[in-house]
Write a structure and sequence with these properties.
3-OHacyl-CoA_DH_NAD-bd; 2-enoyl-CoA Hydratase, Chain A, domain 1; eight-stranded mixed sheet; Rossmann fold; alpha/beta; 721 residues; 20 strands; binds 3-hydroxybutanoyl-coenzyme A; seven-stranded mixed sheet; globular; 12% strand; N-(1-d-carboxylethyl)-l-norvaline Dehydrogenase, domain 2
Amino acid sequence: MQSAVKQGKQNVFVQKSTDKTATIGMICLDAPPVNALSGDKGIPQAIAAAVQEFDADPAIKAIAIYAAGRFYSAGADIAEFRGNPATDAAPLRSLFEALDASQTPVVLAMHGVAFGGGLEVALAAHYRIAEAKTKLGLPEVSLGLLPGGGGTQRLPRLIAMDKAVEMIITGRPVSAAQALENGLVDALFDGDARAAVLDFATKIINENKPVRRSRDQEIAAFDPAIFDTTATKLAKTAHRNPGPMKALDCLREAAQGPFERSLTFEHRAFDALMEHPQTKGICHAFLGERTAVKIPGLEGQKTSRSMDSVAIIGAGTMGVGIALACMKAGLQTLLLDLKDEALERARANVERQLAGQVKKGRLSQDRADAQLALLTLSTSFADMGDADVIIEAVFEDLGVKESVFRQIDAIAKPGALLASNTSTLDVNLIAAFTNRPQDVVGLHFFSPANIMRLLEIIRADDTSADTLLASAEFARKIGKVGVVVGVCDGFVGNRIFEEYLRQAYLLLEEGATPEDIDGAMEQWGWAMGALKVMDLAGQDIGWAIRKRRKVEQPDRPYSTFPDQICELGWYGQKTGRGYYNYPEGVRGGATNPDVLPMLQAHSIALGLIRRTVTAEEVVERTLLAMINEGAKILEEGIAYRPVDIDVIYLNGYGFGRDRGGPMFQADLMGLKTVLARLEELSKGREGWALKPAAILYRMQEQGLSFADLNAGKTVQTDMQE
Ligand code: 3HC
């Protein structure tokens, strides 16, 4: 007997059948790609209904649940977290109730991955088995949440409290072998989940095994000190992610019992987190990183080009970082430079970095050796003829790039991906140095290129669709988040960064100290404040850009205070002085006592009376500048979607994950507030820099948020209206 629970027009996500003896009720979850327990698709409801129907059938002696596809389940559907606890979590909770109410034993088989709500369904089943390579975990805390489907209540009833605390607080999965050892599962199997669950269910029937609910089991004795010691450890990070501490509270409650009361406590805590702006930010980041790598119009398409070998031209810091990233991904890596000495230095640098990773225990010696074996060094451009991908990482000068690209064009094989790592130059001009502009793209890495996850993929006018697909595939292969953007000065990331820095410098002139600025930003969620970033990157780089800007954009004046710092030769960390001092052994910089008197003199020279600048003002003004520039970037079509901007900031600039990105923040503030504040600030000092982008007015008129644009809605222009 076989029946299917149909949802929508044709999709079947839950199949119901019986075995050939008609004594085992089989329920198969089949909802690609990850068997998420989507309430909108009716999945938990359908499983609950199937359990109830089988339970009511006297012929059915056991119920067996398993899943089809590459793994069992990724848990609740994160895309459905709309911050409405009453509806978001209800369908899943009704499934747990159905499992608890069943008088017929329920066996559940997991394979591949059993995460979050998926594992919680298993915890509520009466017997659990797992395929030997399964990873079982409750990763909710990494989304700023806690296991809200009874996980914090059932897990400590099945495994020792210290192990339950560890699994839930860290979100780290355990292996199937560990799960068997600690009592999380009853047996392991190899091969097909359907056959295994059928065998186990038959055994249950033959051995007359009873219904065995996790909710009825006693929590084994444990040392209650674990709660306080864990809370002390969590206190340092709780302000960035509220999930783990709340999860610990739920575990504490579980120990008090009774089950029903502490389960209600867990549900309330979960519901409150769903509405928490930081949790929303983290969930936005999770889904955003998976959206921003998709190229609109090319979804589901793949390149036919191979991406197995890379040639990198330029053996400086950036070239070495790119080479390390490629070697780590197992690509044949050729590093080219004109001079032997440069290559020798590069090899020493690569070896030093690999040895450092081995020393820190992050890499085995064997793997370091294997990575190093992938590296070839050469001074001859002729050697790059076979490379699938060629990346230019030479000095940022159009003349130098021209000479390099003409040589690449002469030697590269047909179909090779030709990339420039320029951070400022026009990729259209670079593409025009070749006879194959369709194969040319910008690949903007962020330093250190082997660590930073962001890769801006810059599409020039003639870049072909397949070249974009190949670039996205290359990014994926080397573990980067590749976001496609258009050509403009600074592309998306640095263009926004310039406006954000502009406000930071203006605030310095008005009364803030570097510590005020960086302290406010870091407290709010940035990995590093703007001025510390400049000290790290090297003040001379910003100085060169400002000199260029003075000529190119005389109507957009910049604070001259950073120039004064540079004139003293204070380039930041590399010279031991910048906005901060960097004495040997002091991490993160110490106050530079000369900066404040310089600032005071500078403010007087500008006719400004220094005032107190609050942390809120620092955060608000810099953020508004970013939002406004982001809006202009969207208006010009340089970024496809607001979420692309968010993902660029989360992965390349240390924007706090719990803050979700600048455009996400704009939605949290509300467009009305954003516009009102920008209008207000644009009447103040250097107000031109915060004059609201026209698109913001149109969005407000049309009632659109940035989330709406992410969902595919478009802003109508005057002409369309
Ligand atoms: N909900 C909705 N979509 C999900 C999802 C989920 N739980 N998990 C993954 N997806 C989506 C991804 O967005 C992606 O979408 P796309 O096809 O549009 O790009 C697709 O599934 C594939 O995901 P990945 O690219 O991440 O695939 P991988 O094979 O690399 O990884 C995974 C699979 C290990 C399951 C990984 O996706 C993952 O860790 N997912 C999150 C798991 C999680 O955090 N679960 C807890 C959810 S909260 C919960 O259950 C609450 C409960 O306690 C009440």
